[in-house]
Give the backbone structure.
Amino acid sequence: MSTEPSELTGTFITIEGGEGSGKSTLSRLLQNSLNKIGHHVTLCREPGGTILGEQLRAALFSQARSEVSTEILQAAPSPLTELLVFSAARAQLLKEIILPALGDGDTVICDRYTDSTFAYQHYGRGLDRQVIETAVRLTVGNLKPSLTILLDLEPEQGLARHGIVNQKDLFGETSPVGGNNYLDFESLAFHQKIREGYLEMASLEPDRWLVLDAGEDPDVIARIALDAILQLIE
Ligand code: TYD
């Protein structure tokens, strides 16, 4: 096994998109198809994928919506804290999983990577791009994916898939219920900025990005993504 960038013989692929865009379904479908034709695949997701990474994920996301209170909202991570926690989880994932797998010649498919940080912490939160670039360089050096698949979807549709619906409470106030974590409950405008950010990044680097309509049938999406991956690895 080698972890020198020049000796990484595997292929690094990332999947990006907003909430409820179907990234985990696509990862699994791609893994199955690639396994069937004899390719070894390592799947991972961010944040998480290692013991420490899952602990960092839990530290960020364990608070259930029903427990949200003024104190908890005050204790919500700042954009800089988010950047640093996601980066820490990523550094560990790289060391433990991604670099060894690429060194072994695997196809690595990662559900979210550095583009999520630009989408959420820069386009979404407004954190300075250069601050994020510095953190990304420190965390991953030059390790860029060969292919990034963007599952593009209207935020309303994605949030609905995550079970978020606007419900009226006893006082007639409308508030969202359902969802996976506190980021799901950001405003629609926040999720729209993320979608636009992704589309902008994809337009700036068209050779790396494959933009797919996440409203399509999952098998159709997987077929197109598989073709693009096979062009890289065969
Ligand atoms: P997750 O439940 O995995 O959502 P999804 O299924 O949409 O991937 O939660 C990951 C959340 O973390 C998601 O809202 C995006 C956010 N995130 C960032 O804000 N910055 C990052 O760098 C990463 C990796 C994720």
